[in-house]
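Q: How would the structure tokens look for this protein?
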Amino acid sequence: MHKKREGERADDRLDEGNVAERRTLALVLAINVGQVVLAGAVGIIAESTGLLGAALDNLGDTAVYVVSLHAVGRGVGAKSKAARLSGVLLIGLALALLGEVIRRFVVGSEPIGWAMIATAIANAASNVIALRLLRSQRDRGVHMEASWIFTTNDMIANGGIVASGITVMVFKSSLPDLLIGIVVAGIVLQGGWEILKQARESRRGAERAKEMDHG
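A: Here is the predicted structure in token form.
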């Protein structure tokens, strides 16, 4: 009876952990939706590839958080699949952003520096909140580690957009915005590859553990 009660308490703790994980992902998902709307709208109005890149990055994050919510409480295999889908999605968005940078380089653009700075600072502030939420859940699985990587990348990208906005205002040129668009695409691409790597390692670890159990 004592052992059974211990097992029941362990299950209860697992359930509570899943609930906390879902709550964290739902809150971070809401933050990302707000960032997509803000960065996307201002990026279009201000003709900023940096902000459009941030919006695409956040859109990818949003889709990933939806997938991660589906993976909560499931096995390592499901979490690895969620992370793998996240990585592929990020790589696709990075390539799309590179295409947009090339298009704007050809047709031209007139980014608004102060709008880039204000939007990036607002997004960075919301990313700080997201990181605080995710910190306690990083060890819940590879899908949560992927979420941490996404948000960390967002912080780096927003810092670059602030610097780019200042440079746009000082030199009256669209080139810094195009360059930060390329940098953001590179950050997103690197994050995608990192997530795919972690997903592979997690899957291999689970397969080795399964083989040892059968052995």
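The domain at 23-214 is CATH 1.20.1510 (Alpha-lytic protease prodomain-like).

Residues 77 and 102 are 38 Å apart (CA to CA).

Upvote if useful.
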